[in-house]
């Protein structure tokens, strides 16, 4: 038994030549993610290859990303951090960073440079939206519709959501303000570049809510990303917003009669944060894993399992085919030039300031 | 100790004695005490468990609804200085000065953003204002740091600073320190806090941070720019021509530089204005002043749709009011759910208690079956049943009761929540009812009938009053469970069927406004206790039976 372990450890050492000495690293790691197809893509693209190189490491998964912010705060207060690496949305990473719950990351030092020779910082570019955030994927919130319920003129414009005459029937929208408010203003005639200025004023917020009010009694408000694909599949709604990967999976993997819009898609990032205050051996292991899991090839590999775009620019040319369906994944990426003709990039600074305020108004408006 | 050594004389005088000779009273009370201790020891594990895992966390959570120390802890000088400000216009320069020093240290310790998110609950924009200021404050101090550095590069070196500010004793210890050891506690040189009061204070703050947070030697780390700012203020305020301590030439040269007309200065107010013009608006300062106290009523006011303002308490604008309405809705719907559980559960319990036990047990399994199914599965099943393209609507359309384009909306509203929650909570109503009903002797009913009562009179005058304690127990269980439910309303409630608990969950897990969540939770707890008290008054808690 002991000999096997030593043998395994030696193999691992040889494989990971050049890394920090493996003895100083913890041999177990708890990774927190979202569960489902997304976590599976991380397992396949990052964790399994890493485990093959380091057989001594055992990785356990916790599907708690939805409550990660609150749980990390509770762990921090209790002084007992049991997580090593946490997958969160970019907006949450700002929150965690502000609260001192996530570790600040030196991108160039801790992450691998791009395979095309660019530095890590240049390669990740705009996706580095907070000092604590290690980006993985670009995803977008966009609109899907029932192809058999929209007649001969399938929608091509985001404002179809508000067009009850041409597209009668129920819609499903997120129960939180982001994306809804921007779309409402855009379709109320506000120029795209002025939207956040308008949304910063109480009048602008009322205007957006008034526009949403025109479809309020025709809208089902969702709280989970899986809701809209389900509602579309059941024929409960004619169109609805959700994450692009969910729509891809409903269309390509489940062959539902669903089409999707890329118009005015809301681009957003998802990535890792490392909890603040990890002991040295665990931190060393996490850093070793993260460096591997966010290199150019690994990010490109993930796109074979789910239609979210890699956060590195250098990964884009390496995006290949779907692991099971064999279709080219590049045209299904939210960042593909053909799709990204009219995009919103989520304004994190804006939402971190206005989220509490607008959410209070939005919820009060919903409840009325 | 031995209890049997008795003095016969003493015993004769004393009152009644036990067999071993000790006074009976004493012996009895000892026996009782032992009994009590044993009883306490038996319940102790549970008592401690409940205290540690239940009472203490709840108390801690509720305490957060008034706790507000973060403001005065992060900005101690500013909150004190704001106490003297009358709240009109902008605060005086001295408040900006205090805010600069407070925020500088907070930014180094990365605590300023926490304060920013705290204040953002009260003032939109505070979050990014503080985040931005953490970076901007450095530039304010660099105005002085750069000028001193250009004069003499020693002003940007660790060693001369340490020699000027630290005591000789401490310097010797610090020089002898090696990595891995404990750093010697910083001591100011004698008299330096009178000579250079601001500089000494800022250097001490820097020393504490470098030792405790960075764990580095002060002989290696050059001070941050707040120390240079403080130095400028000291030099501008006093005359140092007579100074003869360490690095006297350096200090005197700096004093001359500060006195020269070429020396650039930047008032704190202007510096803050350069970071963000919001600092030159009264809003942020008024909010800071308002939330300076260690305890605040702000969270409780927010949770009843009011807000704290410098002018006193006022109601929120109409389009932001939500909590009172949600509290009312939660109570109303919980009541409806309890009533529908009584209506649906009573006949079931009645039949169960009157059937032969073999059949009753079989039916009981059907009642309990939902217990063994996941809550999420049961709730999602209702979605499939009730939605517009769902089972019930399909059947109604097929029968022809409802036309295809006018399908009923039965989910994502109050109706959906009431149906799903009634189903989920029904067993909690049936079980206590059943156990009470099965203790009612059947002879009473027969006796009533043999005395000539009709079926209805028998039921209403004889049977029903005896089953009331079961209804009482079931109602309390269902009502209290319903009032705190949030998963089911979240899934099937839409916008009109959500409860106050959904907002509490949102503030706990998404907005991280735990203070507000705690205040909402406290109110909910108080309402439940109040209702319990009223119930006890009206029905009497003795009339509640679980079997």
Automatic annotation (TrEMBL), chain A:
The keyword Amino-acid biosynthesis is assigned to this record: no
Record organism: Salipiger mangrovisoli
The protein's name in its UniProt record: Extracellular solute-binding protein
Keyword entries, A-Z: Signal
UniProt keyword Signal, yes or no: yes
Family matches, as InterPro entries: SBP (IPR006059)
Leader peptide range in chain numbering: 1-22
UniProtKB/TrEMBL annotation, chain B:
Localization: Cell membrane
Keyword set, alphabetical order: Cell membrane, Membrane, Transmembrane, Transmembrane helix, Transport
Domain ABC transmembrane type-1: 327-535
PROSITE patterns, sorted: ABC_TM1
Membrane topology per record: Multi-pass membrane protein
Gene3D superfamilies per the UniProt record, alphabetical: MetI-like (1.10.3720.10)
Statement: the UniProt record of this protein carries the keyword Membrane: yes
Residue ranges of the TM segments: 39-59, 331-353, 359-377, 415-434, 468-487, 512-535
Family statement: Belongs to the binding-protein-dependent transport system permease family. CysTW subfamily.
PANTHER family from the UniProt entry: ABC TRANSPORTER PERMEASE PROTEIN, INNER MEMBRANE ABC TRANSPORTER PERMEASE PROTEIN YDCU-RELATED-RELATED
Protein name: ABC transporter permease
């Amino acid at each position: 038994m002991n000999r096997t372990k030593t043998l395994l450890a030696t193999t691992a050492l040889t494989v990971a030549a050049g890394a920090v000495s493996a003895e100083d690293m913890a041999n177990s790691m708890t990774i927190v993610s979202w569960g489902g197809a997304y976590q599976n893509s991380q397992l396949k693209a990052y964790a399994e290859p890493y485990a093959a190189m380091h057989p001594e490491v055992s990785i356990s998964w916790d599907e708690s990303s939805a409550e990660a912010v609150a749980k990390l705060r509770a762990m921090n207060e209790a002084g007992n951090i049991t997580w090593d690496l946490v997958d969160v949305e970019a907006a949450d990473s700002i929150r965690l960073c502000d609260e001192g719950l996530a570790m600040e990351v030196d991108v160039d030092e801790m992450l691998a440079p791009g395979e095309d020779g660019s530095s890590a910082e240049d390669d990740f570019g705009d996706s580095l939206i907070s000092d604590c955030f290690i980006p993985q994927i670009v995803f977008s919130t966009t609109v899907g519709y029932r192809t058999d319920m929209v007649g001969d003129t399938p929608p091509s414009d985001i404002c179809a959501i508000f067009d009850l005459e041409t597209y009668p029937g129920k819609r499903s929208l997120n129960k939180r303000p982001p994306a809804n408010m921007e779309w409402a203003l855009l379709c109320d005639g506000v120029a795209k570049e002025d939207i956040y200025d308008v949304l910063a004023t109480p009048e602008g917020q009322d205007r957006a809510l008034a526009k949403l009010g025109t479809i309020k009694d025709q809208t089902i408000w969702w709280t989970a990303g899986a809701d809209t694909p389900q509602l579309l599949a059941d024929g409960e709604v004619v169109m609805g917003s959700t994450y692009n990967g969910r729509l891809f999976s409903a269309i390509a993997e489940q062959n539902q009669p669903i089409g999707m819009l890329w118009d005015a898609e809301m681009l957003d990032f998802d990535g890792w944060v490392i909890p603040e205050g990890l002991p040295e051996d665990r931190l060393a292991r996490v850093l070793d894993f993260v460096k591997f899991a966010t290199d150019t090839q690994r990010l490109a590999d993930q796109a074979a399992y789910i239609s979210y775009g890699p956060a590195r620019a250098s990964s884009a040319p390496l995006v290949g085919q779907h692991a099971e369906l064999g279709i080219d994944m590049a045209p299904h990426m939210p960042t593909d030039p053909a799709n990204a003709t009219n995009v919103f990039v989520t304004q994190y600074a804006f939402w971190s300031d206005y989220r509490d305020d607008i959410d209070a108004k939005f919820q009060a408006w919903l409840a009325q | 100790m031995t209890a049997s050594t008795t003095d016969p004389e003493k015993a004769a005088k004393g009152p009644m004695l036990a067999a071993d000779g000790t006074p009976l009273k004493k012996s009895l009370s000892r026996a009782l005490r032992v009994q009590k201790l044993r009883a306490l020891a038996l319940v102790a594990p549970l008592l401690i468990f409940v205290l540690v895992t239940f009472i203490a966390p709840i108390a801690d959570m509720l305490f957060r609804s008034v706790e507000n120390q973060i403001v005065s802890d992060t900005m101690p000088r500013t909150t004190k200085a704001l106490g003297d400000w009358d709240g009109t216009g902008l605060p005086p320069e001295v408040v900006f000065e205090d805010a600069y020093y407070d925020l500088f240290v907070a930014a180094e310790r990365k605590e300023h953003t926490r304060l920013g998110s705290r204040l953002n609950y009260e003032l939109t924009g505070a979050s990014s204002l503080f985040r931005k200021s953490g970076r901007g404050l450095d530039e304010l101090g660099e105005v002085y740091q750069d000028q001193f550095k250009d004069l003499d590069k020693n002003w940007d070196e660790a060693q001369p600073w340490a020699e000027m500010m630290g005591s000789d004793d401490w310097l010797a210890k610090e020089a002898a320190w090696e990595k891995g050891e404990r750093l010697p506690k910083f001591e100011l040189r004698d008299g330096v806090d009178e000579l250079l009061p601001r500089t000494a204070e800022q250097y001490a703050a820097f020393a504490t941070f470098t030792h405790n947070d960075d764990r580095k030697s002060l002989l290696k780390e050059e001070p941050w720019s707040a120390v240079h700012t403080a130095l400028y203020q000291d030099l501008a305020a006093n005359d140092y021509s007579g100074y003869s301590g360490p690095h006297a030439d350096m200090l005197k040269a700096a004093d001359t530089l500060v006195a020269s007309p070429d020396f650039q200065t930047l008032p704190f107010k202007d510096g803050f204005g350069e970071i963000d013009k919001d600092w030159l608006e009264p809003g942020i300062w008024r909010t800071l002043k308002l939330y300076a106290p260690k305890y605040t009523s702000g969270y409780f006011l927010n949770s009843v749709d009011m807000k704290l303002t410098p002018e006193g308490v006022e109601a929120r604008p109409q389009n932001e009011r939500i909590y009172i309405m949600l509290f009312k809705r939660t109570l109303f719907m919980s009541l409806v759910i309890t009533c529908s559980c009584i209506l649906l559960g009573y006949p079931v319990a009645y039949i169960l208690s009157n059937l032969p036990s073999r059949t009753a047990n079989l039916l009981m399994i059907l009642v309990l079956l939902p217990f063994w199914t996941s809550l999420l599965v049961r709730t999602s099943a209702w979605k499939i049943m009730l939605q517009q393209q769902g089972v019930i609507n399909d059947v109604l359309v097929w029968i022809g009761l409802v036309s295809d384009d006018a399908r009923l909306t039965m989910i994502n509203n109050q109706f959906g929540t009431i149906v799903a929650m009634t189903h989920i909570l029904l067993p909690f109503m049936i079980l206590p009812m059943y156990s009470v009903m099965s203790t009612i002797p059947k002879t009473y009913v027969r006796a009533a009938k043999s005395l000539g009562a009709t079926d209805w009179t028998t039921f209403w005058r004889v049977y029903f009053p005896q089953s009331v304690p079961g209804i009482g127990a079931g109602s309390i269980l269902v009502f209290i469970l319903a009032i705190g439910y949030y998963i089911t309303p979240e899934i099937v409630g839409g916008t009109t069927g959500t409860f106050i608990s959904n907002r509490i969950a949102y503030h706990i897990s998404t907005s991280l406004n735990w203070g507000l969540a705690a205040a909402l939770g406290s109110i909910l707890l108080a309402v439940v206790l109040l209702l319990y008290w009223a119930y006890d008054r009206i029905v009497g808690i003795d009339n509640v039976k679980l079997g």
